Amino acid sequence: MPRMIGNGLSRREREILEILHRLGRGTATEVMEALPDAPSYSAVRSILRILEEKGHARHEEEGKRYAYLPSEPRQNAGRNALQQVMQTFFGGSLESAVRTFLNDSEADVSEEELERLTRIIEDAKKRESR
Fold first, then answer.
1. Which CATH fold topology does 4-70 show?
2. pLDDT by residue (tens digit) across 11-45?
3. How far is C-alpha 47 from the chain's CA centre?
4. Which of 120, 119, 5, 21 is nearest to 68 (CA)?
């Protein structure tokens, strides 16, 4: 049985959804070609159908074939995935997640990124005080 990862997706479902986000739209063949260690064509079509049933993808007919698209913008999908990770690993605490990342000796955070993060935090404070 496949291991489920955030939003109830298996590893392979998440890989295929990431490919759809990267391509913007793609046929089963295009998705299969972009997959590392790709399963059979029929397996890819089956996973695309499952992603549709779960509400993560949709299709449009292009002649005799289907083109698959993510059902939500990448930013929304990313936000949902990040919320799932924060809930699972950090008890829903943004502070804990950020602290963990910034305290990681392997994290490569530039001075410019830290300055941008500081501005984002200051902007959030201003919005909250309104």
1. Arc Repressor Mutant, subunit A (1.10.10)
2. 899 899 999 999 999 999 999 999 999 999 999 99
3. 16
4. 21
Q: Which helix (H) or strand (E) holds 62?
A: strand 57-62
Sketch the domain layout of the chain as residue ranges.
4-70
pTM tops 0.70:
no
Q: Which two tokens stand for residue 15?
A: 């890989």
Query: Closest Cα to residue 35, out of 25, 54, 20?
Result: 20
Look up residue 66 and give its two tokens: 């289907």
- Rounded CA gap, 109 and 99, in Å? 13
Token representation of residue 64: 């005799």
User: To which residue do tokens 């949902």 refer?
Assistant: 80
